[in-house]
Here is the input.
Amino acid sequence: MSQAAAYPKGIGTLQVFDGGAFSAAPLAVQAWLIFTVSTFLVGLVYYAWRRPVARWAGGGFVSSLLTGHLFFASLGLPMLSGSIAIWYIVCWSPALILLLLRRPFLNQDENLCYRLWSGAMTGVILISFIFDFRDAAIYIDPFSGAG
Here is the structure.
């Protein structure tokens, strides 16, 4: 039995987030998650082949999906919503840094669609991080020995 099996399913920081938890989540949470995934996928499909920022965003998205469970299992930690938040911070930060440094959403020489996507991508990561940093701190607290 995995460590995560001892935790309830849901969208809370110390809960297991899976397909069932997604289905039971409030409609606003579902819509946000669908918008987030869609924004990353647009970057992968339309821009990653010719835009380095989109490659970093897409790479961060794909790596967060493929490696999070392995990383937390290797540490013997349960994969909960809080650990997902930590992994998003790790994997998505390089793209956010590039988006904020290069600001393609403000570059009038760029295609309007790319500017709109890069602005949406920046907003998606920033808004996600508002919740992710809080959830990461809550997740780490019981394991840190400080509390």
Remarks:
- Residues 9-142 form one domain.
- Residues 57 and 95 are 5 Å apart (CA to CA).
